[in-house]
Specification:
Structural class: mainly alpha
């Protein structure tokens, strides 16, 4: 039985994954793939070094990696490196600082998910209850923020200030 050829997404997944976590058949496929063309070997080396740099927060290697990606002859990696070069300060700070916006992004994702689930189904009171309901392990940042927003929405002078923020939570927000 001849093995099924790899799709482009499967090959890309092999390039991106940590080499130590590959199964033996995946390692064999990766070896065949990288030996088939020198550009693929170069691409694999660059992708793995970038992954290592990101995982270990190796901000000191960023300039060298961008230069080697631009000189690699691979249009896609050169384009990616040019984008990193344009946003160099942000990328550098992301690699060397321990802070990130993961909590905020997670809460925004959660709110959007709830909004999509509730679209056209219920009034603002039910939406508010679903947003305020949280598991105790997640803390209460959004609970406090939503409490402030809904309390402020009862006064006509403040409703215009918070309306853009509240309107992201649901279509029927008029109280």
């Amino acid at each position: 039985v001849t093995p099924k050829p790899l799709s482009a997404s499967q090959a890309a997944w092999l390039f991106v994954r940590d080499a130590t976590k590959l199964e033996t058949d995946e390692q064999q496929m990766l070896t065949k793939l990288t030996q088939s063309h020198p550009l693929l070997t170069n691409a694999y080396t660059l992708v793995q070094s970038f992954n290592t740099m990101v995982r270990s927060q190796g901000h000191l290697q960023l300039v060298d990696w961008i230069e080697s990606a631009l000189a690699s002859g691979l249009a896609q990696l050169a384009s990616f490196a040019a984008g990193l070069q344009q946003d160099f300060d942000e990328v550098y700070n992301a690699l060397c600082m321990v802070w990130n916006s993961g909590c905020t992004e997670g809460n925004v994702n959660r709110l959007k998910f709830i909004k999509r689930q509730m679209y056209g189904r219920a009034n603002f009171d039910l939406l508010r209850k679903r947003v305020l309901y949280r598991s105790p392990k997640f803390g209460g940042f959004m609970v406090g923020l939503m409490g402030i927003i809904t309390a402020c929405c009862y006064t006509p002078t403040v409703i215009n200030r918070f309306m853009p923020l509240v309107s992201t939570l649901g279509n029927r927000v008029w109280i």
